[in-house]
Design goal:
single chain, alpha+beta, SH3 type barrels, five-stranded antiparallel sheet, 1 helix, 35% helix
């Protein structure tokens, strides 16, 4: 019984490390991969540097982003931090009600 109790603090430290470090990192990695897979032309995005723009073209390792009229930047695909969802669009997880017919 005493041998098992000796390892309890070590097990608690390993569990706390997993809970506080490894699990959130894995969740961030999943979110990043979901963002990368949802990139397509015409989508408004924010780069990791804070630059906002609209995707013009998406290639394997790089994307072209329009930041102003006649200004297109070519950046690494991993520089895209998040996809900006228009405020007037309903969230993707909420179903939209079909329009009702008026009598």
């Amino acid at each position: 019984m005493n041998n098992w109790v000796q390892y309890l603090p070590l097990l608690l430290i390993v569990f706390a490390f997993w809970l506080l470090v490894l699990r959130p990192a894995r969740n961030r990695q999943r979110e990043f991969m979901a963002t990368q897979s949802s990139l397509e032309s015409g989508v408004r995005v924010m780069l990791a540097s804070g630059i906002f723009g609209e995707l013009v073209a998406v290639h394997d390792n790089e994307v072209e982003i329009r930041v102003a009229p006649d200004v297109v930047l070519t950046v690494a695909r991993q520089a895209v931090a998040k996809v900006i969802v228009p405020e007037d669009a309903p969230p993707a997880d909420e179903p939209t009600d079909p329009p009702r017919a008026t009598d």
